[in-house]
Amino acid sequence: MPEETPLTRLQAAAAAKKAAEDEAQKIRDKGAAQFAEAVVYALTHDGMKPKEVADATGVHYETIRRIARAADVERLREPTVTSRRKAEER
């Protein structure tokens, strides 16, 4: 068995840290996907409005809106003329 040196201890600690970070990222991604799925279901099947979902979850309204747009959830109303014009300028 090779002798443990400061370098090998550091390398082992760095590898363990990287593995833990990778696992944590997988868990975060899975949780985010499950949350987005629940939000979309609430908006499309349960008839909730984005504000109601935001209030019920404690997540900012804009986050709920972005999740809905990413999932192509139908808008509650058409954009105003001003916001449509701003979007076209971009």
From TrEMBL:
Top-level taxon: Bacteria
Protein name (Swiss-Prot/TrEMBL): Helix-turn-helix DNA binding domain protein
